[in-house]
Write a structure and sequence with these properties.
about 1500 residues; alpha/beta; globular
Length: about 1500
């Protein structure tokens, strides 16, 4: 038994506010093991119940307790000794583990599974032999080896006796049932283990009736039965407790069910208290508070199991807390409040709860929407029963408003803590510092300040924390209101503190003993986003469920959003807001099918911004819409941007507003291109199907016109590609002829009016700077596009907004920001972020001066203090958790610094504090604003998606390359002596480079910055060779052979450098058979008769006259193998037993009725209608299929024996080599970002960790941080993405290949896929199949996990594609192939599932509707299925795409760009989360 003052004999805290006696059998087992002096290990599900058992045992037995909560941050100092400096001397202080060993206390080690490897083995010898060497040179000796009442010194070393009463109880979760590290075998062998199971439903019901006697028994029975069913699903032991009959079949049935998130152990205690305190509260609503099942990310099977239990026990899924509403909140004595709730038709109900130290303000309640007030009511009810609260909701739904209103209504001071992934326990609790004499000190975190003063700690974004970090670091504080501080002090519950005071202890005595009380009014409100769909593990795990009650915030209903905007904005007309709300509804529905649309969902914040914009500027409808959609719209993939434009246009039309996000010129150009595409589709249709519905084409001129029309279309397409480039050069020439000015004076100009700056119809007052050197001055050319951007920025500035400029590199973001601040004479603070920026460095900077660590204000804090503008550059480079602090500053005007000070809006401070100098508060000075600069999201910038995280709180502006007139003016300004023709040439060149980047042909976005650099060089050194000057820009690309060839061709077109000499494209078809020169055409009109089956081969039929319509000698022949080779070198059109024909029956050719295969020898194509093809016996079609199968088998045998043709393979690969290279860069960059090394803290080498400077002063070794891969031990193995490609290898692909080379391009795509994924199979597991009229999976081209290993195998694969298309059966299996692929891809567990179907859009011929295909595409919510339509007939393809779910249909109308299109689709879908 331990000895001492008894202060460390635990006070057993309540469980969810209720004292609970633990299982007697477990207590007896603990007593047995303590008598045997065996250390113990308790295993069980998450929750405070395991800790409660040990604490109750210690209290009953009189054991003093030391506690160590194990986290991933636990280190040697936490387990042995920490160092302190006092009066210039280094002193060592024992850790709780050492204190327990020396003083015979019970040591509790909780969270064993969370420790990193090689940390707990430090205790091995202490556990086994009761020995340990300490940092101060002393040594712990086993009991009995030295006197127990003293210490022995030997050789200058102290030997300290370990008490015989020392005992260890470890607590942990079973692994691998829960994530964590497996026990080290030597460590495990030192414990006696026991698993603590849940209470049986009978025992749990009895406990609930005891602690909540007034709660209705029938309701408690339903609730206990429901959670029992949930726990039993997938858990054999729990199933035995639920099934009354113990029937093996019933147990097995429950065990086979899916494992659901676990209802918290003893979680029903708080549910019962809610029902008891608020009798009219629906049972399911109370249950939902403790177990937010509507927020879980469940599979369909899991949802059915969960809902089945709710339905079985008649528990209605709650929509609100009907019956109760907030009536009033009043103070009730010191630090308490009375909450008065009105019960509809039944009077009022009152409840007393804790409150903060600031005055109560109920006015914010009535500023909430009608939908938000029930949510606040839920929070108040949970607060009344003593529970901490977690608010779950999407960004922008009002989580922060609810937390702030909760604080104001109850008079709480808020302490906001921003959570991030690598947050440590020290970040959450205490940090080290020094006083003015150099002594080490410990400073409380904002969270602990709130705990000691009775404040409200807001944990913002707990979904960002690492798995287990919250429960490991703060679990005991949240559940028990107790905590072991790194400084050695202990926080104890208020009840325990009061008990000591009642027993005669004084506060001074208790504080001197290292104890401090947690204030009874202390509360934690956490905020988080919903669990990410499609992920096996989420932040809302079984441990987190034990810590809070939950409030699930759904997006506001349209009517509530409209009322909110109208109540806060004085609008003359709310049409715009109604239109935006309609757009949001349509987009939310579309985003369910197309996740790429999610960033364009408008938050309530953005609606309010649009409303405030219209309130100040009623006529700016278009600008208000653009502002609501934000700059992110400009950088969406083309197809996604088109979807958004269409939705916003439709929504605005419905409310009577005509709007188009495109300029008039862009609309005109789009209409022109649409007309050309329509005309092109009609002309191509006439080529693809020249004789549909006819047996033969009677017009020889049409036959001759096919090749001429095809050539003409190709020439027109090339001219169209060059048109934009020519237009740029023409416009540039015209502007230069006018001395760099546009045809008329620019409409917008920056005008300095003395005390005011005016741009067009907007003006703003200039400031009077106190430090003129802080006002930026920069060389800036007021080109029209930039002046327009300055005007847009000035509008948002006058509306009080913070600004966000997004764009590519080199487009002038910094120039615009500096010009804006310079013209308004505003002082600037500058902060550049990078990947190593931390939350600490963003706010304060530790500096060591004279042995004392002092914290200097960062530029951010200086800007806040002095009312300056903070320019934050490279915001996309810092970790997202770092820049999230900007969101709070921009939207809420409140956050807590690392040194404990709270930045706050003066309007939020209580009146009595405004007149006082409170050093813990830092009011935001008037004039403070932020201008944030960020690169566009996605490849090739590879930064974070700043906008997705917090861009909606800023006024976003897209900064793009200048238009032609603006760029001409800019270049002329930088290069006045550069000849006009050089400027024109440069503009044409860069317009082409930018077009190729937008089309996905180039990976680098060439910007105005490079163009200016060239002009400056040419202006200063006019005699330098142009090619040498250009090398300054293109040297980076010249080491890549394929990229060099591409750029060389482009440069050659502008008279610079050499061409690439690329290979000519190959021709498809049987290379052994082709029409000879000077061939003759024989046309055989159909006689309508079948030839006798005499198996005689016909001779030379000669050449018939084209106009001899009396000749009907063509006989229909039954398909025969001999006819497939019966070709006399002529072109036979019509009936007759000849191969190489077209439109006939029985032979190998193109089109026709019942030919067994296709043979392309360059003949004219005649395609019969489906009716004409059926005009022969069914037997003939069956014979044709059999002959085709035989011929295909022979062809495959030939391919198998053929030698590898390196030139043939090289031609295929060369056509897509640039796309392969670009795709591999994207994939590898994506993987590199996922595997990016993170900062590993507590290292013995590396970079000095600023947060551990004091630890370094006292001599700690692990004060460094370095980049490395995080310890993945115990973490869930990441699964690959599983992708199935379904390629169209039908007969039409072969038939029409001569027109648009579609089959050849598809073969190139196959090479593109295989080469792109090579070496990345651990991340992307894929299969490729071919579908045709033969079968849905007629060709297994690449089986799962078995990609071609060599170029020879790849070539064999694409040859099989061509052979199959030549010999396959007629018909279409697109729908069946889609269905099979979706079912097949999910057969193996994976991270995500994708299916890509390539089809030639020839569905109408077979009676297939887009709607039926879409139904199959969208059948499984876990599979993202996409259709890629390759067709020159754009109209038909677009009709199909329009019938598919938004974002799931893509059209490639230029087969030469098929691989480019495929790369863009893949990047926009599979890589959407990481690009």
């Amino acid at each position: 038994m331990s000895s001492g003052t008894g202060l460390r004999v635990p006070w057993v805290p309540s469980v969810r506010g209720i004292p609970v006696e633990m299982n007697q059998r477990v207590l007896d087992w603990l007593r047995q093991k303590s008598r045997l002096r065996q250390d113990m290990f308790l295993l069980g599900d998450p929750g405070a119940h395991l800790r409660q058992v040990v604490l109750q045992f210690a209290a009953l037995e009189g054991y003093e307790v030391e506690y160590v909560g194990i986290t991933r941050d636990t280190n040697e100092a936490d387990l042995k000794q920490r160092r302190e400096i006092n009066d210039g001397h280094l002193k060592f202080h024992n850790s709780p583990a050492v204190e327990a060993a020396l003083r015979g206390r019970l040591l509790i080690l909780e969270g064993i599974e969370k420790a990193e490897r090689n940390v707990l083995p430090l205790l091995n010898n202490l556990l086994e032999n009761r020995e340990m060497s300490l940092e101060d040179g002393s040594f712990l000796m086993a009991p009995g080896r030295i006197p127990a009442d003293g210490e022995v010194s030997t050789g200058g070393r102290r030997l300290l006796p370990v008490s015989k009463d020392f005992l260890v109880v470890a607590i942990g979760l079973p692994v691998p049932k829960y994530p964590g590290s497996q026990l080290d075998p030597p460590l495990r062998s030192r414990f006696a283990g026991r698993t603590i199971h849940s209470l049986s439903p009978t025992d749990e019901l009895a406990l609930l009736q005891e602690v909540a006697p007034s709660a209705p028994k029938d309701i408690l029975q339903k609730l206990v039965g429901c959670i029992g069913s949930w726990r039993a699903s997938g858990d054999p032991h729990a199933a035995l407790g639920v099934v009354k009959s113990s029937s093996q079949k019933e147990v097995e049935a429950l065990t086979k069910g899916p494992r659901l998130p676990r209802f918290p152990e003893l979680g029903m205690l708080s549910v019962a208290r809610l029902i008891e305190l608020f009798p009219n509260l629906p049972a399911a609503a109370a249950l939902h508070s403790a177990f937010p099942f509507s927020a879980f990310n469940l599979t369909e099977h899991e949802s059915k199991t969960l809902n089945a239990a709710l339905n079985a026990y008649q528990l209605e899924i709650p929509t609100d807390r009907r019956g109760y509403s907030i009536d009033d909140v009043k103070e009730h004595g010191d630090r308490q409040a009375t909450i008065k709730l009105e019960l509809t038709g039944q009077g009022t109900v009152q409840a007393i709860c804790p409150k903060g130290s600031w005055p109560i303000d109920v006015n914010p309640i009535w500023q909430l929407t009608l939908a938000q007030r029930p949510l606040l009511l839920r929070m108040l009810q949970d607060h009344c029963i003593g529970m901490d609260i977690c608010i779950i909701g999407e960004r922008g739904v009002g989580k922060t408003i609810l937390a702030r209103t909760f604080a104001q209504v109850l008079g709480y001071r808020m302490y906001t803590i921003f959570c991030f992934r690598d947050m440590t326990s020290r970040d959450l609790t205490q940090r080290r510092g020094t006083d003015d004499r150099g002594n080490t000190t410990w400073h409380l975190s904002p969270l602990l300040e709130a705990a000691l003063t009775g404040g409200l700690a807001v944990l913002d974004g707990i979904h960002r924390l690492a798995t287990g970090a919250l429960a490991g670091s703060l679990g005991r504080l949240l559940c028990d209101r107790a905590f072991q501080l790194p400084s050695g002090e202990q926080l104890v519950p208020w009840a325990q503190w009061s008990h000591w005071l009642e027993k005669g202890k004084t506060e001074e005595e208790l504080r001197a003993s290292g104890f401090r009380p947690v204030h009874p009014a202390f509360r934690i409100v956490a905020t988080a986003e919903p669990p990410e769909s499609g992920k096996a593990r989420t932040w809302l795990d079984d441990e987190v469920l034990t810590l809070f009650h939950f409030t699930d915030v759904r997006p506001m209903q349209s009517k509530d959003q409209l009322k909110l905007v109208q109540s806060l904005c004085d609008l003359e007309d709310a049409k715009l807001v109604k239109g935006l709300i309609g757009y949001m509804q349509a987009l939310r529905k579309a985003a369910q099918a197309d996740p790429t649309l999610e960033p364009m969902l408008l938050s309530t914040r953005q609606l309010l911004h649009a409303g405030r914009h219209l309130e100040k500027r009623p006529g700016d409808v278009n600008e208000a819409i653009i502002g609501a959609l934000s700059a992110y719209f400009r950088f969406l993939p083309v197809l996604t941007r088109d979807s958004v434009s269409r939705l916003i246009k439709q929504a605005m039309q419905e409310v009577g507003i005509k709007v188009d996000l495109r300029s008039d010129e862009a609309v005109k150009e789009a209409n022109r291109k649409a007309a050309i595409a329509k005309q092109r589709g009609e002309r191509l249709r006439s080529l693809e199907d020249p004789a549909i519905g006819l047996r033969f084409s009677p017009n020889p001129r049409a036959e001759q016109g096919i090749s001429q029309e095809t050539l003409k279309l190709e020439q027109e397409a090339e001219q169209e590609r060059k048109r934009a480039q020519d237009n740029v050069m023409k416009e540039a020439s015209a502007v230069l002829k006018q001395d760099g000015k546009t045809a008329q004076e620019p409409i917008l100009q920056v005008r300095d009016m003395g005390n005011e700056i005016s741009i067009g119809d907007i003006s703003a007052t200039k400031r009077v700077p106190k430090q003129l050197e802080l006002v930026p001055q920069t060389h800036f050319v007021d080109i029209p596009q930039h002046v327009t951007a300055l005007r847009a920025m000035l509008i948002d500035w006058t509306l009080g907004r913070h600004l966000l400029l997004i764009g590519n590199q080199g487009v002038g973001k910094n120039k615009l920001a500096d010009r804006f601040l310079g013209m308004l004479q505003i002082e600037r603070e500058y902060l550049q972020l990078h990947r190593d920026t931390t939350v600490q460095s963003l706010t304060v900077q530790p500096v060591l001066r004279g042995g004392v660590v002092v914290y200097e204000d960062s530029p951010l804090v200086c800007a806040v203090r002095h009312g300056r503008v903070l320019v934050i550059d490279e915001a996309d480079k810092a970790p997202l958790e770092v820049v999230c602090i900007l969101k709070s500053l921009a939207e809420d005007g409140e956050f807590t610094l690392g040194d404990g000070r709270t930045v706050i809006q003066p309007s939020r401070m209580p009146p009595q504090l405004k007149c006082q100098e409170d050093p813990s508060l830092l009011p935001i000075a008037d004039g403070f604003r932020m201008i944030v600069l960020a690169n566009r999201p996605g490849f090739p910038f590879l930064g974070n998606d700043f906008y997705r995280e917090c861009g909606d709180v800023f006024a976003s502006h897209a900064v793009e390359n200048p238009d032609v007139a603006s760029e001409v003016e800019l270049l002329r300004s930088y290069g006045p002596s550069v000849p006009d023709d050089i400027i024109v040439k440069l503009l044409g060149l860069f317009s082409e480079l930018r077009r190729l980047f937008d089309a996905g042909m180039l990976a680098y976005p060439y910007s105005t910055r490079e163009l200016v650099h060239i002009i400056q060089h040419l202006d200063t050194f006019p005699d330098d060779d142009l090619e040498d000057v250009f090398s300054n820009v293109f040297s980076f690309d010249w080491h890549d052979r394929k990229l060099r060839e591409t750029l060389a061709d482009i440069l050659h077109g502008f008279g610079v450098g050499m061409g690439s000499g690329r290979a000519e494209p190959i021709r498809m078809g049987d290379v052994n058979k082709k029409l000879p020169e000077g061939f003759k055409t024989a046309r055989h009109w159909d006689s309508g008769n079948n030839a006798p089956d005499d198996r005689r081969m016909p001779g030379d039929v000669g050449t018939r006259d084209w106009d001899d319509k009396e000749d009907h000698s063509g006989m229909r022949h039954k398909p025969r193998r001999e006819l497939a080779d019966n070709w006399d070198g002529r072109e036979h059109l019509g009936e007759g037993p000849w191969a190489g024909g077209s439109g006939g029956t029985g032979g190998a050719g193109l089109g026709g009725r019942a030919g067994p295969m296709r043979q392309d020898v360059g003949q004219t194509m005649v395609i019969l209608s489906e009716e004409a093809q059926r005009d022969v016996p069914d037997e003939w079609h069956d014979i044709a299929k059999q002959l085709a199968n035989e011929a295909y088998a022979e062809r495959l045998q030939q391919l198998g024996m053929s030698a590898f043709d390196e030139q043939e393979y090289a031609a295929f690969r060369a056509a897509v080599a640039p796309q392969i290279d670009a795709m591999r860069i994207i994939l590898q960059s994506h993987e590199a970002k996922e595997r990016e090394r993170m900062w590993l803290k507590q290292q013995t080498h590396g970079e000095l960790d600023d947060t551990r400077i004091v630890d370094g002063i006292v001599g700690a070794r692990n004060i460094y941080t370095r980049r490395g891969e995080a310890d993945s031990l115990g973490q869930e193995q990441s699964l690959p993405k599983r992708i199935k490609f379904v390629l169209d290898v039908s007969g039409s692909m072969y038939t029409f290949n001569r027109i648009d080379r579609r089959l050849q391009r598809l073969q190139e795509v196959a090479i593109f896929i295989i080469e792109s994924f090579a070496g990345l199979e651990h991340k992307y597991e894929y299969s490729i199949v071919g579908h045709s009229g033969t079968a849905p999976e007629a060709e297994m081209l690449v089986p799962w996990g078995k990609p071609p290993a060599s170029a020879k195998e790849q070539l064999a694969l694409v040859r099989r594609m061509a052979a199959h298309a030549q010999y396959c059966h007629k018909g279409d299996h697109t729908l069946e192939a889609t269905d099979i692929a979706i079912k097949d891809v999910v057969k193996v567990p994976a991270d995500e599932y994708f299916v890509f179907i390539v089809s030639d859009a020839d569905l109408a011929r077979y009676g297939i509707t887009p709607e039926s295909w879409n139904q199959i595409l969208m059948q499984n919510q876990h599979v993202s299925a996409y259709a890629l339509l390759i067709s020159a007939n754009t109209n038909e393809a677009e009709q199909i795409r329009a019938g598919l779910a938004p974002g799931h249909g893509f059209v490639c109308d230029d087969n030469d760009l098929l691989a480019v299109t495929f790369k863009q689709i893949f990047q926009a879908t599979v890589l959407k989360h990481g690009s």
